[in-house]
Design goal:
Blueprint (H helix, E strand, L loop, with lengths): L2 H19 L3 E6 L4 E7 L4 E7 L3 H5 L7 H17 L6 E3 L8 H11 L5
Parallel strand pairs: 1-4
Antiparallel strand pairs: 1-2, 2-3
């Protein structure tokens, strides 16, 4: 089993447990150069809020998705968008990635922004 297949297998198991909670989930995806965060309502299958290092306003600033500081800023951005919609509690879906580095920085940024999980 290759690395990505194992990650996807881990993420499926986690998403089943998160869906049982009934809260929106903060889903993280990271690539080599960018990081993405979405708040998804599994009941309706809709994305409620999203932020990524590919947004035009982010690309024009000094924020880079390939480092910890950039991931922290993306976490703050997705948290502020969620707060505007009245979302305060979410379930954190790390998509099978280990909780360290950029994934951890994004989670800490989201907590600083006012989300609780």
């Amino acid at each position: 089993m290759d690395k990505n297949t194992a990650r996807l297998r881990r993420s499926r198991k986690t998403r089943i447990r998160i869906a049982e909670q009934g809260k929106p989930r903060l889903c993280v995806f990271r690539s080599g150069k960018h990081i993405y965060a979405q708040i998804i309502d599994d009941a309706s299958g809709r994305v409620l809020a999203q932020a990524s290092s590919l947004e035009k306003s982010v690309r024009e600033s000094e924020i880079r998705g390939s480092n910890v500081l950039g991931a922290n800023q993306i976490g703050l951005r997705v948290a502020s968008k969620a707060r505007e919609l009245g979302i305060e509690r979410v379930a954190f879906d790390r998509s099978g990635y280990r909780y360290h580095g950029r994934v951890k920085a994004l989670a800490e940024g989201a907590r600083e922004g006012g989300l609780s999980f």
